[in-house]
């Protein structure tokens, strides 16, 4: 088992439709592949933690880093873990039409994201908090307006 | 037969050149020309240049072909004229042939238009390539330079006659020349483009950094024959980034030479650089540390708070500072001051951090604090002792004086020397009493100046005192409970309170039971009539309370002779508390433990 954390920038701002499509596809494939974790998206800023079997996780990272929807993909951590910290895979973002998303499986409003699970080593929990801050800004209930340096 | 020809045919008879035969196709050119009509009267679309030469051809009577072109509404024709003769060989007329050349004509027209467009595009391209602030060039597969735009000549100052292929490598900076030639050649060999930078000599002899980019002109499946490219000056950008690179490299060198932990982090708070010393201190690699690994090096209980503080600093951009114990490669924790500040410049905010080892200072501070506590307590005890002793010695002195008066009155002395001695004893007794009074007043006035009364935070003060007793506590494995919730504050002299508690707790530790670790409970509370009390309860040896042979609060009274002690402690406690109007009680069970209760009297404000 391992987990991987990366951050990236969307090439174009993702629409509600794009996000929902990504949510549907990823949830389906991740459930199939035993991948769990969480993805943050706001105003083109992307960060994701996912965990799974070594080979599956590596293959997924390979696919994601080649995905043309985003660029500047930067891996922050790639480490073996003893056990999972997430029970499923979910995605947190600010949809324009929030009402139509609220009932969706695996969707979270950014300020409803629970704090990093206590089973994560402290360094990785801190990492998750920092990338969450980088994506959503200091107040996750507000859509994030300042620009994260693209050199990420 | 003539009718079936895929061409226009007409015959013009006699010297007047009258139409005799006209096929359908020819009608497109000559229209409704009737047999017998003169061609000059009904020329239709026949071009005038042709009409002019027709009589002359007839007159010459020779085989002659003119070429002319005429267009009807639908087609275009090439016209030719030939004389024909009758059966006697005499001149009979002219045969006019019109071959349909519409297709060729259209093609020619298209070619013409294409040429025009090409010329226009060409002109545009030329203007653009010659005015854009970059050099454009073309080389062939052998590396021969077949074109450079005029900017190149302007930049290099070379004459237009220069042999480009030979000269351009000579204008490249000697340090870059081989690399450039090699890279360009390698790209040409595999049919790829290139993208590299080099220094090119300017007209004034200065070398300027240029960016050269070229792509092959592809016509699959053929191998490319030409490479077209552009050369842009990137000197300033390059110098800037060079300076930045140099600055960064120098900074890193500096950071790597310092025996301190130094690191930098991105605007998001993710550490992207640890100096050499950090790796040595932690015994970890950059990868093992990762962007947040530092937090895992702190003492477990301090990690969560430190992580929260860091997130907070990153969110608000405010300085991070704190004292933490950090694990060294050998597992030893040492105290560090961790500091990080955000620097914002043109290239976006970044964090710069240091962790300075303050273990020595920390230790020194602790030792000093303990010694200071020790000293000030000793000093205070001494003061109190002197005060109490001088006070208590006055009683026997007075008794002595009374007895002496009695003696002088009842006894008679014959020897005059003895009278002198009596006088001297009297004087000595007076002096003793005065000295005792002086001593007591001196100490008391000093004490009053030194010891301001203040509202003490019991939790804090007790913790401080216990800190001073840490070696003993650790040594005996004592467990100490502090319960101050009921009376958390007390108006009293800090030094007095310290003396009292210190003595009671060290007593409790000293007289602990040999078979069980000491368990001491400090409880601060109020009596029903609101007097503050401090209770110190232990599970130690216990003592005889009402044994007149072993009084508890007497000077030099000692309950357990097998335990070291001066016998001053409890006496002092009693004196301090009662000097302020309070009192101390004690309950004890031998072998089970003792409880002292100090009833404070709060000094008037
Ligand atoms: C930001 C981002 C996150 C993604 N996360 C996942 C994911 O968690 N699981 C997944 O299967 N695909 C994810 N994808 C999609 C993959 O990149 C890829 O499109 C998908 O796995 C289908 O790959 P395939 O077309 O090669 O089968 C993500 C794409 C992007 C842009």
From TrEMBL, chain A:
Pfam families: BLUF
Residue stretches making up the BLUF domain: 1-92
Gene Ontology molecular function: any one: FAD binding
Residue stretches spanning the membrane: none
Protein name in UniProt: BLUF domain-containing protein
The species this protein was found in: Hymenobacter metallilatus
């Amino acid at each position: 088992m391992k987990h991987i954390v990366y951050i990236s920038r969307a090439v174009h701002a993702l629409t509600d439709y794009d996000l929902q499509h990504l949510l549907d596809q990823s949830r389906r494939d991740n459930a199939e592949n035993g991948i769990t974790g969480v993805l943050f998206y706001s105003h083109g800023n992307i960060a994701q933690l996912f965990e799974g079997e070594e080979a599956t996780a590596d293959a997924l990272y390979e696919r994601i880093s080649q995905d043309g929807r985003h660029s500047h993909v930067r891996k922050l951590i790639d480490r073996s873990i003893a056990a999972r910290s997430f029970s499923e895979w979910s995605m947190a973002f600010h949809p324009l039409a929030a009402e139509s998303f609220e009932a969706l499986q695996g969707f979270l409003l950014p300020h409803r994201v629970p704090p990093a699970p206590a089973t994560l080593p402290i360094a990785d929990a801190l990492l998750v908090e920092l990338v969450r801050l980088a994506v959503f800004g200091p107040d996750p209930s507000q859509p994030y307006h300042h620009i994260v340096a693209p050199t990420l | 037969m003539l009718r079936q020809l895929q061409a226009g045919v007409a015959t013009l008879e006699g010297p007047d050149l009258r139409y005799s035969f006209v096929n359908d196709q020819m009608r497109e050119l000559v229209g409704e020309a009737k047999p017998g009509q003169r061609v000059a009267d009904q020329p239709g679309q026949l071009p005038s240049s042709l009409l002019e030469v027709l009589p002359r051809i007839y007159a010459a009577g020779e085989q002659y072909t003119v070429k002319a072109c005429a267009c009807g509404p639908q087609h275009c024709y090439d016209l030719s004229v030939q004389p024909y003769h009758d059966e006697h060989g005499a001149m009979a007329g002219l045969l006019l042939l019109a071959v349909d050349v519409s297709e060729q004509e259209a093609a020619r027209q298209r070619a013409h238009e294409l040429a025009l467009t090409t010329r226009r595009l060409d002109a545009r391209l030329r203007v653009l390539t010659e005015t854009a602030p970059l050099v454009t060039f073309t080389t062939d597969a052998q590396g021969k330079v077949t074109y450079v735009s005029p900017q190149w000549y302007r930049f290099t100052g070379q004459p237009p006659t220069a042999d480009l292929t030979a000269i351009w490598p000579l204008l490249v900076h000697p340090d870059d020349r081989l690399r450039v030639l090699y890279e360009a050649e390698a790209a040409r060999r595999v049919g790829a483009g290139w993208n590299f930078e080099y220094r090119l000599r300017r007209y004034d002899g200065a070398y300027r950094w240029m960016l050269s980019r070229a792509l092959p002109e592809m016509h699959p499946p053929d191998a490319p024959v030409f490479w077209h490219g552009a050369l842009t000056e990137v000197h300033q950008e390059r110098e800037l980034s060079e300076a930045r690179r140099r600055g960064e490299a120098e900074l890193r060198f500096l950071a790597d030479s310092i025996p301190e932990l130094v690191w930098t982090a991105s605007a998001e708070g993710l550490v992207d650089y640890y100096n050499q010393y950090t790796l040595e201190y932690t015994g970890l690699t950059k990868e093992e540390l990762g962007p947040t690994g530092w937090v895992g090096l702190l003492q477990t209980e301090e990690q969560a708070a430190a992580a929260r503080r860091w997130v907070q600093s990153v969110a608000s951009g405010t300085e991070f500072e704190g004292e933490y114990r950090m694990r060294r490669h050998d597992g030893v924790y040492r105290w560090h001051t961790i500091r990080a500040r955000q620097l914002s410049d043109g290239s976006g905010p970044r964090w710069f951090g240091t962790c300075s080892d303050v273990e020595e200072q920390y230790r020194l501070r602790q030792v000093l604090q303990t010694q200071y506590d020790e000293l000030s307590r000793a000093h205070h005890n001494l003061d109190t002792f002197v005060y109490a002793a001088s006070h208590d010695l006055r009683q026997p002195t007075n008794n002595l004086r009374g007895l002496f008066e009695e003696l002088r009155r009842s006894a008679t002395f014959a020897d005059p020397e003895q009278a002198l001695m009596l006088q001297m004893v009297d004087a000595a007794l007076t002096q003793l009493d005065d000295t005792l009074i002086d001593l007591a007043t001196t100490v008391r006035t000093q004490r009053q100046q030194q010891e301001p009364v203040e509202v003490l935070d019991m939790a804090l003060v007790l913790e401080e005192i216990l800190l001073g007793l840490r070696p003993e506590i650790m040594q005996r494995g004592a467990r100490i409970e502090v319960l101050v919730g009921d009376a958390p504050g007390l108006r009293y002299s800090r030094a007095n309170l310290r003396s009292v508690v210190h003595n009671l707790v060290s007593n409790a530790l000293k007289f602990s039971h040999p078979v069980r670790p000491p368990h001491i409970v400090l409880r601060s509370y109020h009596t029903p009539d609101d007097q503050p009390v401090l209770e110190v309860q232990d599970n130690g040896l216990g003592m005889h309370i009402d044994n007149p042979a072993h009084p508890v609060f007497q000077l030099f009274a000692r309950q357990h002779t097998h335990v070291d002690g001066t016998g001053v402690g409890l006496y002092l406690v009693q004196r301090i508390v009662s000097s302020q109007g309070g009192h101390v009680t004690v309950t004890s069970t031998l072998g089970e433990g003792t409880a002292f209760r100090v009833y404070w009297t709060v000094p008037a404000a």
